[in-house]
Design goal:
alpha+beta, Immunoglobulin-like, 6-stranded mixed β-sheet, 9 strands
């Protein structure tokens, strides 16, 4: 009987340790790659790591013409370019222009949808890194209420 309790407690505590590791430690590992310097940059070039992007028609940026609430603006970026490594979304007039960076693995279809915050009416820019090229598309989005600034 004592042996069974000991085995049960060892199994229970081992499982509990696994859950704690999965819930608390693994997410911290994911944050280790956080590019804080890019998200804290105050300009577009800084948010792109000092690189520039060339405008192209090969990127389809979908965003509303008028966003009723700047706190939740839906954005979709699609492209047929090959070897896409990253898709970056920037909001020119935000205090910190970098809104999102999506790192795509090989074989992933380069189509993303997300929601971003906008402080005020601004140009939204999608930058796609494909091989050694950075290509961009942009769209003006008018914000009527709310946003990052309140």
């Amino acid at each position: 009987m004592k042996n069974q309790r000991r085995v049960f407690l060892q199994s229970f505590l081992g499982g509990l340790a696994g859950i704690v590791t999965g819930v608390f430690i693994q997410p911290l590992r994911a944050l280790a790659a956080w590019p804080a310097e890019l998200f804290n940059a105050a300009d577009i070039k800084g948010a792109l790591g000092g690189n520039e992007a060339t405008a192209t028609g090969e990127i389809n940026l979908k965003a509303p013409d008028i966003a009723e609430n700047g706190a939740v603006v839906p954005v979709t970026v699609e492209t047929n370019l090959s070897n896409v490594e990253t898709i970056t979304i920037l909001v020119k007039e935000n205090q910190r222009p970098l809104s999102a960076v999506f790192i795509l693995g090989p074989g992933v279809q380069p189509n993303i949808s997300t929601r971003i915050k906008m402080a005020k009416t601004s140009e939204v820019i999608a930058v796609v890194k494909s091989g050694d090229k950075r290509l961009s598309a942009s769209k003006e989005v008018k914000v009527t209420i709310g946003g990052c600034g309140g």
